[in-house]
Amino acid sequence: MCDALKNSYHLLEELGRGRFGTIYRCFSPAKNAFFACKVIDKSLLSDDPADRACLEHEPKIMSLLSPHPHVVSIVDAFDSPSSLSLVMELCDRRTLFDVVAHRGSLPEAEACRLVGQLLSAVAHCHRLRVVHRDVKPENVLLDPRGGGLKLADFGSAVWLGGEGRAATAEGVVGTPYYVAPEVLLGREYNDKVDVWSVGVILYIMVSGVPPFYGDSVEEIFEKVVRGNLRFPTKHFRGVSADVKDLLRKMICRDVNRRFSAEQALRHPWILNGGETNSLPDLT
C-alpha cells in the first residue's frame, strides 16, 4: 500500500473483497469525510494483458463517468509498483443482490424505480462510449442517502474510444446468468451486452428466478446462448404484459432488434413508473 494513500487517508474496517482487491472504509482528515477505498494488489493479477489493461483503465473510466447520480464517483487514485488504490464515494454495504435475495421478487412499481435508475446509469456510460461488461446485482450498490442505486466496479469496463472509432469490443467478460450470448460466442459485441444484463436483473426482480438456469456454469452458458426466453406461469402469475414486453426487447438474442439503454428508458412501462393498464397473467 503506497505512502501517499496512507498520508491522505486513514484506512478503517474492511467492507468487502474481490478477485484482485479489498475494499475498506476510510477517513480523510483534510475533507473531514468518510469514503470507500478499493486497494488492488497487482501481484494477484494474471499475466493476461487484458487484466493489466483493465487495471490501468478503471480509474480513467471512472473519472470520465463522474459525476452521475447513479454511478459511483471516484475521488482519488494512488498508483504504486505493488498496488492501485481507488478512493470512491461511500455507499451502503448492501448491494442490489442483497435486496433481491432477501425479498425474492419485488412489486412492479419498485422494480421499475430501481431498473429505471440502473438504465439511467448504463445509458450515461454508453453515451460516453463506455461498456461496463459486468452489470450484475452484486455490482450495484445502495445509496444510503435516499434508497437509490449506484453502478459500481468498472474493473471489466472498456472504453470504445472517440467518435469515428469502432463501436465494438471483444473478449469473454462477464458473469454466468447475466452475460449476453454474443460474448460467449466469441464475437465482437457492442454496448447492448449491458442491456441484456439489466434485462436479466429485471426478470429476476419481478419473478424471483433467473431466465436461464443450470446446475453448472456450462449448462447456464448453453441456455444463454440458446436464448429461449420463457415466462413460466409459476413465477409470472400476476406480472403485467407490459413488463414482459420490455423483457422480450432487452433479453433479445438478435442484437439488431435488442433495445438500447435509451430505448428501454422510453418504454411505456418505465415511463409510467411500473403502473400498467395491461392485464396481469392470473392463470
Short description:
The chain has 283 residues and is of the alpha+beta class. The chain has helices spanning 3-8, 49-65, 96-103, 108-127, 181-184, 192-207, 217-226, 233-236, 241-250, 261-265, 268-271; strands at 10-17, 21-28, 33-41, 74-79, 83-88, 130-131, 140-143, 148-151, 158-159.
Explained architecture:
- The chain is α+β, with helices and mostly antiparallel strands.
- The protein has 2 domains: 8-88, 2-Layer Sandwich (Phosphorylase Kinase, domain 1), CATH 3.30.200.20; 96-271, Transferase(Phosphotransferase), domain 1 (Orthogonal Bundle), CATH 1.10.510.
- It has helices at 3-8, 49-65, 96-103, 108-127, 181-184, 192-207, 217-226, 233-236, 241-250, 261-265, 268-271; strands at 10-17, 21-28, 33-41, 74-79, 83-88, 130-131, 140-143, 148-151, 158-159.
- The strands form 3 sheets. A 5-stranded antiparallel sheet has the order 1-2-3-5-4. A two-stranded antiparallel ribbon has the order 6-9.
- A hairpin with a 4-residue loop joins strand 7 (140-143) and strand 8.
- It is globular, with a radius of gyration of 19 Å.
Topology:
Elements: H1 3-8, E1 10-17, E2 21-28, E3 33-41, H2 49-65, E4 74-79, E5 83-88, H3 96-103, H4 108-127, E6 130-131, E7 140-143, E8 148-151, E9 158-159, H5 181-184, H6 192-207, H7 217-226, H8 233-236, H9 241-250, H10 261-265, H11 268-271
Antiparallel strand pairs: 1-2, 2-3, 3-5, 4-5, 6-9, 7-8
Helix pairs in contact: 4-6, 6-9
